[in-house]
């Protein structure tokens, strides 16, 4: 096959096209670099970077710790060019996620921008209504209340608690999933089970008793300790994990409605050792100086 000769004019046209294309590439490259450089420069302008953190709603969490956490997320640049602290591109989701993870006491959180230089951190802290204090009840009574963690109204363990002497908070001693020595962020009990136990304790309170702490053994035996009336023992109410709490509460209420039983329990309360609700339609009870007595509820 013969080579077809190319005219000088066609060669010149092709060369000019290549030159124009190269010039356009160079021009757009310079323009792109100029725009990116300008944006990078202005992204660090003090007029449009976040330099103030407004924190509201926290009562226990230290504001300085929150500020430090937020500023750590605002440091640095995207692609080594654009400041994280620029109000248009600040890492909202990262700030939110890190605060939720690093401060388990936070129940709800809002991160919003205010103007060009501020972000507002609005916090609702979890209410510590109960304490989780480990697996075993301390043998020394003065140590009850040490090494405890706050528990919210859904059975969620969320923060280390200071030492509380006495019965400021109701305490749980129970085995949990995970590390019992560092239980923050752990669900102590399922919300359903937790609510049923709280409902049971409320029912016990309406009968004139004052629950103080609950000890749950590994075999599922529950011992609900009651406050003493004076200097007597801490009597306990015993039940099993498989017991229907509404049923045994009804049984106990029926027993307390009988004058003889209620009078004996109340008059000898300082020597009361336990009330056992594990058995169907039956309440067992014992005083420290007497033998065991039984009362049928049918």
Task: Explain the overall architecture.
With 298 residues, this protein is α+β, with helices and mostly antiparallel strands. Helices cover 32% and strands 26% of the residues. Strand 14 and strand 15 (282-287) form a beta hairpin. Helix 2 runs antiparallel to helix 3 (92-102) and helix 4 (191-206) packs parallel to helix 5 (245-256). The protein is elongated, with a radius of gyration of 35 Å. The mean pLDDT is 84.
Put the structure in a nutshell.
With 298 residues, the chain is of the alpha+beta class.
Can you lay out the helices and strands and say which pair or pack?
Elements: H1 8-43, E1 52-56, H2 63-74, E2 77-78, E3 82-83, H3 92-102, E4 106-114, E5 118-125, E6 130-132, E7 149-151, E8 156-160, E9 170-173, E10 186-187, H4 191-206, E11 211-216, E12 221-226, E13 236-240, H5 245-256, H6 259-267, E14 272-276, E15 282-287, E16 292-296
Parallel strand pairs: 1-5, 6-9, 9-11, 13-14
Antiparallel strand pairs: 2-3, 4-5, 6-7, 7-8, 8-10, 11-12, 12-13, 14-15, 15-16
Helix pairs in contact: 2-3, 4-5
């Amino acid at each position: 096959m013969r080579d077809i000769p190319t005219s000088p004019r066609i060669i010149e046209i092709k060369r000019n096209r290549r030159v124009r294309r190269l010039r356009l590439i160079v021009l757009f490259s310079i323009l792109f670099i100029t725009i990116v450089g300008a944006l990078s420069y202005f992204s660090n302008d003090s007029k449009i970077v976040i330099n103030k953190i407004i924190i509201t709603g926290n009562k226990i969490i230290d504001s300085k710790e929150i500020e430090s956490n937020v500023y750590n997320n605002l440091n640095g640049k995207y692609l080594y060019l654009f400041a994280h602290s620029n109000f248009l591109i600040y890492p909202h989701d990262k700030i939110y996620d890190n605060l939720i993870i690093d401060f388990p006491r936070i129940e709800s959180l809002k991160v919003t921008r205010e103007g060009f230089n501020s972000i507002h951190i609005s916090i609702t802290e979890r209410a510590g209504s109960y304490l989780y204090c480990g697996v075993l009840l301390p043998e020394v009574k003065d140590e009850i209340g040490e090494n405890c963690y706050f528990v919210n109204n859904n059975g969620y363990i969320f923060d280390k608690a200071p030492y509380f002497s006495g019965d400021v908070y109701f305490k749980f001693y129970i085995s949990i999933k995970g590390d019992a020595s560092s239980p923050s962020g752990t669900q102590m009990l399922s919300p359903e089970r937790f609510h049923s136990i709280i409902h049971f304790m409320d029912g016990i309170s309406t009968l004139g008793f004052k629950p103080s702490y609950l000890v749950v053994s590994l075999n599922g035996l529950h011992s609900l300790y009651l406050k003493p009336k004076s200097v007597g023992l801490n009597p306990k109410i015993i039940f099993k994990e498989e017991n229907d709490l509404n049923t045994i509460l009804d049984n106990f209420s029926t027993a307390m409605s009988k004058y003889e039983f209620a009078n004996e329990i109340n008059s000898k309360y300082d020597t009361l050792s336990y009330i056992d609700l594990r058995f169907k339609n039956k309440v067992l009870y014992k005083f420290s100086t007497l033998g065991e007595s039984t009362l049928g509820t049918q």
